[in-house]
């Protein structure tokens, strides 16, 4: 990422006060798209999560719906988004996975002041990479993300991929009481030390999913996004063979997933291409069998009765165009080891409210000023980060402001040229990732199981020019 772009954008950064400020679209309750300008209003709302005839659920929403509006923007063209805070608490928006200037990263106290109730903030950036990204608050995340504040941000390729249709499944996980309202108890310490707050109701695009209508013979690009606080999913498509074409927005070598399951931990995205080779009129289950004992059907693909749209599967190649990611130079890369520690049975003692740590240090909450960085990296250098999970739990580890190449797991090379911004690290596993530290700033590195993040599994990677150290 070029530093000139970073400078340009930070000069234009501004905090907008609530009164007297006018921009096209601000008064409008729905997001407006003028060129690439959007408005997002964070506010309480009532939504029919569990379907018609059921009680509406009180949520926090961008606009009037969960997930928030899908923002579709063009690669390499400037985007501006006004966020208006109509909540009763501070908020920010983080553009998860987008390589942008630190001033636009949405971490309160580190990259910007929080947006106070009644205030607005203008986010401006130029997405360098096409792909499936998302946005969510980085303030009181357990409550704000857990009560519905999340949406997809899709950066379109310059030349669209030849498919018949595109679909997006934004998956959310809720813990609902019998009356349909969100259960209290966010930040439960026992859960924070274990697998986090896992819910009892999974929605796709804001509702307990009905059948997904499909047509025999068509080719669909399906974008999967898991915005859950803690639920790790493993999706299996009955009688279908999804081909993974991108992970966390970044194209990979097209491949069928190992064991046929799409492993989708919190914050992760997977783009698959699905050739609809089922029989007209039939239904096929999509199941989440991450937990063998708790396997459930997420939804069914329901085939129309019509004859197939084409006699044979579409033979067009599936490879997506590469994004302009800098290739790390492994021969000269510097190495850093980050050890993930803590949790139930993890032997953390005397750490205050923290349950987890990275290299013995716990940063809690959502990020804040004044924390010494876990490590400092030199701007422009290549690095191999070794993530060593010393705990008995899984952690989807996320780095802001960069995408990294997943090199190996327990020393075994990872195939298919996989890049990501969030990598799932299993208990006792060691994962090596590599990237070029090309984006200056203090970047959060944290587990995206939100309870783990809030209870200490978070730190800052500082990237700065060598002369300043
Ligand atoms: Cu989705 Cu700090 O990130
Ligand atoms: Cu992020
Ligand atoms: Cu974790």
Task: Note down, in words, how this protein is organized.
The structure is a single chain. The protein is mainly β. It folds into three domains: 11-156, Immunoglobulin-like, CATH 2.60.40; 165-303, Immunoglobulin-like (Sandwich); 334-464, Cupredoxins -  blue copper proteins (Immunoglobulin-like, Sandwich). The chain is built from four helices and 32 strands. It has helices spanning 3-12, 141-146, 189-192, 450-454, and strands at 14-16, 37-47, 57-62, 71-74, 79-85, 94-96, 120-125, 131-136, 151-156, 165-174, 201-204, 212-214, 219-226, 233-237, 243-247, 250-255, 262-264, 269-275, 283-288, 296-303, 334-342, 356-358, 375-378, 382-389, 395-399, 404-409, 412-413, 419-420, 422-425, 430-436, 441-447, 458-464. Strands 21, 22, 24, 26, 27, 28 and 30 form a seven-stranded mixed sheet that branches. The chain is globular, with a radius of gyration of 21 Å. Residues 1-33 have low confidence and may be disordered. It binds CU-O-CU linkage (C2O) and copper (II) ion (CU) (2 copies). One copper (II) ion (CU) is lined by residues 94, 96, 398, 400.
């Amino acid at each position: 990422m070029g530093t000139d772009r970073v400078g340009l954008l930070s000069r234009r950064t501004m905090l907008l006060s609530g009164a007297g400020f006018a921009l096209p679209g601000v008064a409008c309750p729905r997001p407006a798209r003028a060129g690439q300008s959007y408005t997002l209003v964070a506010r309480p709302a009532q939504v029919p999560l569990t379907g018609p005839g059921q009680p509406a659920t009180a949520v926090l929403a961008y606009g009037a719906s969960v997930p928030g509006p899908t923002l579709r923007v063009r690669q390499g063209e400037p985007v501006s988004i006004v966020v208006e805070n109509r909540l009763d608490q501070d908020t920010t928006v983080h553009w998860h996975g987008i390589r942008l200037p630190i001033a636009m990263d949405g971490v309160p106290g580190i990259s910007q002041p929080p947006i106070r109730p009644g205030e607005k903030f203008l986010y401006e950036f130029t997405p360098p990479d096409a792909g499936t990204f998302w946005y969510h608050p980085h303030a009181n995340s357990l409550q704000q993300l857990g009560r519905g504040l999340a949406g997809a941000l899709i950066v379109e390729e310059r030349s669209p991929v030849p498919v018949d249709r595109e679909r997006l499944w934004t998956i959310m996980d809720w813990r609902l009481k019998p009356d349909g309202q969100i259960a209290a108890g966010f930040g439960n310490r026992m859960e924070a030390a274990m697998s986090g707050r896992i819910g009892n109701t999974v929605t796709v695009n804001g509702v307990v999913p009905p059948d997904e209508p499909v047509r025999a013979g068509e080719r669909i690009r399906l974008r999967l996004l898991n915005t859950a606080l803690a639920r790790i999913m493993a999706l299996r498509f009955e009688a279908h063979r999804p081909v993974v074409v991108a992970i966390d927005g970044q194209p990979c070598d097209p491949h069928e997933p190992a064991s046929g399951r799409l492993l989708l931990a919190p914050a992760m995205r997977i783009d698959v291409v699905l050739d609809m080779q089922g029989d007209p009129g039939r239904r096929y289950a999509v199941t989440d069998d991450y937990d063998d004992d708790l396997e459930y059907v997420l939804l069914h693909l329901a085939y129309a009765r019509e004859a197939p749209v084409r006699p044979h599967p579409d033979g067009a190649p599936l490879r997506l165009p590469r994004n302009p990611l800098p290739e790390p130079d492994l021969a000269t890369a510097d190495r850093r080891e980050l050890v993930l520690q803590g949790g139930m049975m993890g032997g953390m003692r005397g750490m205050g409210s923290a349950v987890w740590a990275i290299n013995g240090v716990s940063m809690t909450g959502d990020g804040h000023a004044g924390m010494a960085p876990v490590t400092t990296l030199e701007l422009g250098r290549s690095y191999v980060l070794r993530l060593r999970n010393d705990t008995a739990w899984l952690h989807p580890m996320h780095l802001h402001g960069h995408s990294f190449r997943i090199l190996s797991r327990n020393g075994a090379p990872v195939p298919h040229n996989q890049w990501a911004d969030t990598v799932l690290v299993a208990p006792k596993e060691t994962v090596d990732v590599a990237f070029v530290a090309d984006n200056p700033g203090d970047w959060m590195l944290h587990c995206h199981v939100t309870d783990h993040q809030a209870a200490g599994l978070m730190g800052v990677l500082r990237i700065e020019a060598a002369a300043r150290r």
